[in-house]
Amino acid sequence: MLKALCVYCGSNPGLSPVYMESAVALGRELARRKTRLIYGGSGRGTMGALANAVLDGGGEVTGIIPSGYLENEAAHRGLPDLRIVGSMHERKALMTQLCDAFLTMPGGYGTFDELCEALSWAQLRIHEKPTGLWNINGFFDPFLTQLDRAAGEGFLKPAHRALLHASGDMTTLLDRLDLAAAPPATEKWL
Fold first, then answer.
1. Among 1, 2, 29, 66, whose Cα sits 20 to 30 Å from the Cα of 174?
2. What are the C-alpha distances in Å from 74 to residues 12, 40, 66?
3. Cβ atoms < 10 Å from Cβ of 44
4. What predicted TM-score, i.e. pTM, was given to this entire model?
5. Residue 102: strand pairing partners
């Protein structure tokens, strides 16, 4: 089983209630599975709803936030494990170190950046951790189409396109990540 899952999601709630409801459902499931949540440390939006649901279910949460974003992202002050780092680069590196796999939910630029970096680092063999995309409400359909086009145009090898596990069903996706998670390998940090 996954011991720690890094979840990338938004510091905004999104317009449809399905995004906040999904964050709560994921948090409850992580607590049930006894999987520690590793995330960006905000108490806002889907990030806050996710963390609160894990904590409410008796689960463990590690939030990681850059010092410059303590107020901007409204750091979750109720976390027993809130780690403050110096930069976004340090944040992403520490999140990668602490997790067994990644799961991405709908979000904005930061979420897309984190997802693409996790995939790029897997492509470069900096880590060997599986990456999942929870396609809630078809949010990522255009992104998945773009990845398929990149593969079809020869910019993305089929093996690298296959690094992303995508599903609209949370349980299916968590089970896939659980199966794909390998024991921690030696990681090459840039």
1. 66
2. 11, 11, 11
3. 16
4. 0.93
5. 6, 131
The 10s digit of each residue's pLDDT in 12-65 is 999 999 999 999 999 999 999 999 999 999 999 999 999 999 999 999 999 999
Backbone angles phi, psi at 131, to 5 degrees: -125, 125
Cite the DSSP H helix spans in the chain.
Answer: 17-33, 45-56, 88-98, 109-123, 141-152, 158-161, 170-180
β-pairing verdict for 4-8 and 36-39 = parallel
Which residues are within 8 A (CB) of 90 and not within 5 positions of it... i.e. 6 or more apart?
66
Residues 148 and 90: their CA atoms lie apart, in Å, by 31
129-176, pLDDT tens digit by residue?
Answer: 999 999 999 999 999 999 999 999 999 999 999 999 999 999 999 999
DSSP notation for 130-173:
-EEEE-GGGTTHHHHHHHHHHHHTTSS-HHHHTTEEEES-HHHH
The token pair that represents 3 in the structure block = 């011991």
Domains in the chain: ranges and CATH: 4-180 (3.40.50.450)
Tokens of 98: 């602490």
Residue in the structure block whose two tokens are 């317009």: 15
